[in-house]
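Chapter summary example.
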Amino acid sequence: MDALKSLGTEIVFGLPGVHNLPLWEALGETDIKLVGVRHEQTAGYAADGYARATGKLGVALVTTGPGAANTLGAVGEAMASAAPLLVVATDIPSTLRRPGVVRGVLHETSDQQAMFAPVTKGGFTVRAPDQIGTTVHRAARLALQPQSGPVYLGVPTDYLRQTVPHRRPPAPHRKPDGDVPDLARAEALLSDARHPLIWAGGGALRSGAGEAIGALAEKLAAPVITTFAARGLLPLDHPCLAPNPVHTPEVGELWDEADVVLAIGTDFDGLMTQNWRMPKPPKLIAVNVDADDAAKNYAPDLTLVGDARGIVERLLPKQRPGLDDITLRLAGIGRRVRQRVRDEEPQAYDLLSTLDEVLPTDAVLVSDMCVAGYWVGGFHRVRAPRKLAYPMGWGTLGYGFPASLGAAAAGTGRAICITGDGGFLYGCGDLATLAQEQLPVTVVVVDDGGYGMLRYDQDREGLPHRGVDWDSPDFVGLARSFGVHAERVSGFGRAFRRLLGEFVESDEPNVLVVRARLKPPLNTSPRWYRT
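The structure predicted for these 531 residues follows.
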């Protein structure tokens, strides 16, 4: 706990177990806030939501064996989305461990750290009690170091009862900024481009590069396309901001005609590129902390390795004439995209319009993997960085509600969760946490009586419905049974707008259940426009 405190940790999320109870005792002697949850997966998702809302380290405390294993889905999402997470899990007593043998100790696994290897940046298992503090610091530094991500830390439970000398935390190691080769070549390519385009990803947002990218875009008169992870990077009124997503034909045309693309903090994953059906541009310049990451999907013609903000601030291409043409074009694209949404799914248009109208300026929107969440994740007008959390890294259903607990606990604004009935049922037991902590969360449960996206997939293939339809529980009664205020409406019309406006202005948690069925948007794979 001393080590976490020295790292600036203000809040942790966790669940007690017989092996980790000493951590709860130690927490009582600090001012670190503990949010106790009802499932270990919630601890991981909540820590992820906190990390995305703040940029700080999210910490999950869980117990041995099945408790640790329960976090793996959440940790995988954090890994795919580069959320800095520290999962502290106890392990069986070191005195009972026999190398190479599973003896049947309570909660024993043969190699708990190995369980986390595919979904973490790295892992540490403490080998002696007096190494706990230094190992916490090493693990936290790895989690926060670009590209950020989750790290596992295992501590044999018997070490937590032993007395060790207090040690000063190690001084943080800072890598000095060095020269970035090829800046001049990048400047020349951008200056000579007839149709330059900036593609900004999550690394750009995490580095705080928004202002620098905005200034560069204006100088180049270049549109800026942001990935799902970079939504909110530029202000909504920025003259070069392209409306999302790139999957719509109107925005996709910007990619198709670009002769030079400057890709900042992105790896061009399958979800953003329609599984790489989008053609590689004639010239591609990549800015990335990891040259291999930058090149794994589209091979750059030039790679600038380093921090996104630092490199973009140093790029000085020649000024291009005027912004009027590109600004007018982007405004026209925005109108066409909005009209497309209105024509294709009027209910989604109503949902998005209501969110634009009633959300507080500091609100954090958390979307789940559901049809309504796809509309919000792709088309909601995100006002600022870290105001949208969307699990399009790994695509984990059930992310929305538990992640919204962490986003709200961060204290940066009210969290509004958009989830479906299926995803909400993954973690609805943590309504108990919501009520106990009185977190400022509004949960919008879109109840379509099943797995709406999968139902659409079966309909599209001409298949009978199997496993996708059900009788929904009484979600309003469920929420109220936990002491959380809840109401129900049909559709996204006036009643929804009125109630959501009231709910987001409340100081208390609440749940709004909306009975509706939506068609999925173009940013979902069955509807990608390139075939």
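To summarize the output: The longest helix spans residues 324-344.
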